């Protein structure tokens, strides 16, 4: 997991910015612009810990940088509070797409919990419609350079997962690509929502499960073997089932071997994983070893506001920590696109028409020394 063997590749942050990116794990309520929070808070009368954009952004970052997932989740009290009306949700969704497109993201699945946005009187259906309106406006504003889909999330400590699963099915041909559960893992195993997962499987639908972030291997095992997750949200603790011997040889436990053999995608979020204590540092993040072992690793932002991050920042951190080059970034990106909850022909089209040509051009620039 160490970056000791990393060597400078000459890659610049500008190259990383220009590279096409695919994002599978990004929370809508974790990516607001600080000024937008201030504007929306003024509209709804919500009190904030700071009323100037830079100061507020700093507050979110410092509050989230605690090493505790539970404290990290507390920061969402403010973002969710200002997302309780249709216009507010639509604005946040539009700006989300605009920000991702500006960061070079060509495909994104953005998740949120509809049940957390009904305090102002909206129905669950109206929440999804407001998000879709914002996504459509954002895609239009970005000139169609990005494809965005919704992931509907149920909170694992609540009892509305079946309702949200049915909502995801009702909207799956109108912008919703799949389902997720999120929230504190300890004490709230994914098996509490088994009926929702079984329903989604009967409906031939896709779902991911937050697992293996704050909690260990049992969370991952349940998500896969009991609930049938297509992907693992984070999955960092799969490293606990991998042994690196003194001679450098690596031994995979049965769960880790299954995850790798089945090509189960890991939605890893390096900056967030460090903030919540799931990893000690970027340089020691399990992603380094997991990539070497050819797990289906993807790179994601999780919560751009709380982590003060972007896809460019996440990948640039990995470049610096592990010496990754253009082809490594392409590997992460193609991994993510292969793992998206998008029809196969649409995934293939983005890989062949957008991703591979762009990376080929970047690689050619590197070879010519024009980076």
Your description of this structure?
InterPro entries: A_deaminase, A_deaminase_dom, Ado/ade_deaminase, Metal_Hydrolase. This is Adenosine deaminase. Residues 20-356 form the Adenosine deaminase domain. One of its GO terms (molecular function) is 2'-deoxyadenosine deaminase activity. Keywords: Hydrolase, Metal-binding, Nucleotide metabolism, Zinc. The chain is α/β, with parallel strands linked by helices and 371 residues long. It has one domain (13-367): Alpha-Beta Barrel (TIM Barrel). It has 16 helices and 10 strands. The chain has helices at 13-18, 34-44, 53-64, 69-74, 76-81, 86-102, 124-141, 161-170, 194-202, 217-226, 254-261, 270-275, 287-292, 311-322, 326-339, 344-367, and strands spanning 21-27, 105-112, 147-155, 176-182, 207-211, 231-234, 242-244, 250-252, 266-268, 297-299. The strands form 2 sheets. Strands 1-2-3-4-5-6-9-10 form an 8-stranded parallel β-sheet, sandwiched between helices. A two-stranded antiparallel ribbon has the order 7-8. β3, α8 and β4 (176-182) form a beta-alpha-beta unit. The two termini are 28 Å apart. Mean pLDDT is 94; it is low at 1-8.
| SS class | alpha/beta
Q: Using only CA atoms, what is the Rg?
A: 20 Å
| Number of separate structural domains | 1
Average pLDDT metric: 94
Strand residue content: 5-15%
Kindly identify the CATH topology.
TIM Barrel
What strand line-up does the widest sheet have?
Answer: 1-2-3-4-5-6-9-10
Shape: globular
Strand/helix succession: HEHHHHHEHEHEHEHEEEHEHHEHHH
CATH class: Alpha Beta
Task: State the assembly state of the protein chains.
Answer: single chain
Largest sheet: 8 strands, parallel
Distance between the termini: 28 Å
H/I helix tally: 16
What name goes with the CATH superfamily?
Answer: Metal-dependent hydrolases
Query: Which CATH architecture?
Result: Alpha-Beta Barrel
Q: Which runs of at least 5 residues are low in confidence (pLDDT < 50)?
A: 1-8
Strand segment tally: 10
Binding site for substrate: 27, 29, 183
Enzyme class: hydrolase
Catalytic activity: 2'-deoxyadenosine + H2O + H(+) = 2'-deoxyinosine + NH4(+); adenosine + H2O + H(+) = inosine + NH4(+)
Protein name: Adenosine deaminase
């Amino acid at each position: 997991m160490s970056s000791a063997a990393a060597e400078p590749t000459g890659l610049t942050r500008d190259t990383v910015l220009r590279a096409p990116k695919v994002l599978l794990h990004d929370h809508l309520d974790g990516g607001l612009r600080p000024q937008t929070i201030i504007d929306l808070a003024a509209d709804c009368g919500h009190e904030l810990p700071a009323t100037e954009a830079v100061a507020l952004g700093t507050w979110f970052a410092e509050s989230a940088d605690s090493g505790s997932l539970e404290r990290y989740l507390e920061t969402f009290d403010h973002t969710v509070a200002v997302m309780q009306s249709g216009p507010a949700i639509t604005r946040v969704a539009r700006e989300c797409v605009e920000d991702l497109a500006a960061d070079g993201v060509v495909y994104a699945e953005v998740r949120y919990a509809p049940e957390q946005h009904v305090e102002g009187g909206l129905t669950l259906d109206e929440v999804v419609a407001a998000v879709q309106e914002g996504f459509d406006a954002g895609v239009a504003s970005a000139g169609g350079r990005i494809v965005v889909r919704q992931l509907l999330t149920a909170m694992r400590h609540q009892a509305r997962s079946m309702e949200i699963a049915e909502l995801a099915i009702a909207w799956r041909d109108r912008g919703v690509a799949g389902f997720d559960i999120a929230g504190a893992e300890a004490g709230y195993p994914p098996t509490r929502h088994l009926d929702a997962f079984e329903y989604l499987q009967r409906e031939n639908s896709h779902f991911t499960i937050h697992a293996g972030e704050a909690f260990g291997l049992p969370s991952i095992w349940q998500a896969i073997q009991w609930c049938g997750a297509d992907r693992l949200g984070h999955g960092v603790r799969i490293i606990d089932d991998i042994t690196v011997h003194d001679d450098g040889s690596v031994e995979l436990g049965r769960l880790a071997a299954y995850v790798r053999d089945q090509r189960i995608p890991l939605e890893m979020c390096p900056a967030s994983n460090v903030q919540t204590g799931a990893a000690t540092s970027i340089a020691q993040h399990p992603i380094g070893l997991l990539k070497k072992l050819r797990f289906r690793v993807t790179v994601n932002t999780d919560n751009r506001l709380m982590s003060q991050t972007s896809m460019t920042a996440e990948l640039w951190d990995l470049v610096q920590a592990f010496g990754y080059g253009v082809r490594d970034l392409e590997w992460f990106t193609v991994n993510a696109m292969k793992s998206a909850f998008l029809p196969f022909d649409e995934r293939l089209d983005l890989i062949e028409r957008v991703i591979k040509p762009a990376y080929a051009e970047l690689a050619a620039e590197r070879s010519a020394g024009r980076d």
